[in-house]
Amino acid sequence: MLKRHVVSCFMVLLTAASVAVAQEDWNITGAGARAEGLGGAFIGLADDATAISWNPSGLGQLERTEFSAVGRWIGEKYEFDNPNNTDANYSITQSHFTYNFASIAFPLHAGQVNIVPAVAFQRQLDNFSDYSTRSETYESGGGVNTITPGIGLKLHPMFYVGGAVNIWLGNFDNKTLEKGTNATAKNDGSYKGLNFTAGLLVDFEGLKKPIPIKIGASLRTPFELEVEGDYEWTTAGTSNTKGSFKNTVEVPLMFGVGASGRIGENLTLSFDFETRMYGDKKIYRTTDKAPVDTIKLSDSGNDVNQIRVGAEYLIVSSAGVIPIRAGFRTVPTLRANVNEKDEYSDQVTGKGFTVGTGFIGGSIALDVTYARTTWEQTFALTGGKSANHNYTNQTVSASVIIYF
Fold it and tell me: Which of the ends of the chain has fewer CB neighbours closer than 10 A, N or C?
């Protein structure tokens, strides 16, 4: 992600890992082009192999072994406009392809109980950047991943429970070149952490008189994400400084609830609400084993609360099923607007829209989704004017699910 402020090369060196982490999109959710096409409203549906990443209890609904894989194209545009200082204005565009998710789930039937173990790999946070401004060029790669073994159980035609262990790992590398001085800053390192996900799903179609409604809940436990690495700073090729750093990121409790319902045989509607309690969380930063400072994750002091809604309509033919999907979601961020006193004020919240389709055959499901997300951050200036950060993210997700 792009840094919030342009600073000297040496300060970039000291804060790069902290700022990069703080500016990530911490709306951590599940994966899959189908769920994305529903705006991410999948906690109360969770009925395919990606369920382990949304609500692991949904795995208990699977009747066949399923393998899933998801890839993404991500395009970003980041603009800054200051009417009082046009020299500070810039527009940055970048894009790349990345893997997003893979999982396998295999049902084990034991009477009326359906036991479905699964394992997944997911890219949770993407550290890609490749851009240039008037003052610097910046390149970064890597990201934060999870390996997630989990299990879902169908205990009763109505009741499903599940749980998963999220093993957080990954690596990163960043390089900044300050134009004019040729000063460079490099850092690289790794991530690690561990937390758990628990899920519950109630399917009212399991009643003697079925009602086509499901209600789900998912909870992710808080944990500390450790970011460790080494840095190197070179000034015009003549001086060199090296060392190590460690950042500890407080990742909070996250809790979501969702519901889905069928209208007739072909239309499904879904709704999620999820809260991520970032309001009082911090990053603790250490350089060369000495404490440096503490950075608040939420500039406004607010939690990250998100609403997601989606719809799916199935067109059934002799060749297979073609789904048509659309969704909407709010996009709360950890950023805040800035008032005339240069103080953080209200939380920056954007919006996202998604559309998707696919094909479902006897042993395969193919899905593709386009998602667009935007937000605006304002900085109040004298004379009633304001400077603005505008962000646009366009993502194309494609996934395949193979049934065995």
Answer: C
Task: Say whether pLDDT at 9 is over 60.
Answer: no
Three-state secondary-structure class, residue 298: coil
What stretches of 204-253 adopt beta strand conformation (E)? 213-220, 223-235, 239-251
Q: Looking at domain 9-403, what is its CATH homologous superfamily?
A: Outer membrane protein transport protein (OMPP1/FadL/TodX) (2.40.160.60)
Q: How does pLDDT run across 12-58, given as a tens digit for each residue? A: 344 444 444 445 577 888 999 999 999 999 999 999 999 999 999 99
* Token pair listed for 347: 């939380």
DSSP string for residues in 83-110:
TT-GGG-EEEEEEEEEEEEEEEE--EEE
pLDDT in the model for residue 403: 94
* Residues sharing a CB contact under 8 Å with residue 217, sequence separation 6 or more, in sequence order: 43, 55, 199, 200, 201, 255, 256, 257, 258
In degrees rounded to 5, what are phi and psi of residue 50?
A: -85, 0
Report how far residue 177's alpha carbon sits from residue 130's, in angstroms, rounded to the nearest whole number: 12
DSSP-derived letter for residue 135 is S
C-alpha span between 279 and 300 (Å, rounded): 8
Residue owning tokens 């060749």: 319
Dump pLDDT digits (tens) for 268-283: 999 999 999 999 999 9
238: Cα within 13 Å, side-chain hemisphere: 3
Q: Is the dihedral of CA 341, 344, 347, 349 positive or negative?
A: positive
Model pTM? Answer: 0.91
- Angstrom distance (rounded) from CA 251 to CA 194: 10
Domain ranges of the chain: 9-403
Residue 51 tokens read as 């369920």
